[in-house]
Amino acid sequence: MSLLIQCPLCGNRNGYEFRYGGEDKGPYPDDRELGSADWYDYVHGSACTEGVVKEWWCHRLGCGTWFTIYRDTRINRQVQEPQESARQGTGQASGAGKIQ
Questions:
Q1: How far does CA 31 lie from the centroid of its chain?
Q2: Does a structural domain hold residue 92?
């Protein structure tokens, strides 16, 4: 298993059971307030952050639930708390924040 994801309903499952939904970009914007270039950036742009990112996932081969997780992109692991996920300067995750 390359990625283990904890579904809120089914528990820990193989990452292949899930569909990636992209970064969680916050509340859906009012389309009347955005121009076409801003709308394009919202839909297709991503920050590509190194470190902890909040993401949408769907348990497509299980219960079908959409939910968000925090994933550390440096180690490709789901983490509980973003502030506890990585030690400063080492690039290694602390054991306290990882889901086993």
A1: 24
A2: no
Determine contact, residues 59/17, Cβ cutoff 8 Å.
yes
Question: Residue 52: what are its φ and ψ, rounded to 5°?
Answer: -85, 130
Structure token pair of residue 49: 């952050």
Alpha-carbon span 24 to 95, nearest angstrom: 24
Give the CATH number, domain containing residue 44.
3.30.2270.10
Total domain count, the chain: 1
Distance set, CA 42 to CA 15, 33, 37, 68 (Å): 26, 12, 9, 18
Per-position pLDDT tens, the chain of length 100: 478 999 999 999 999 999 999 898 888 777 677 788 888 888 888 888 898 999 999 999 999 999 999 999 899 999 986 554 444 333 333 333 334 3
Residue 94: inside a domain: no
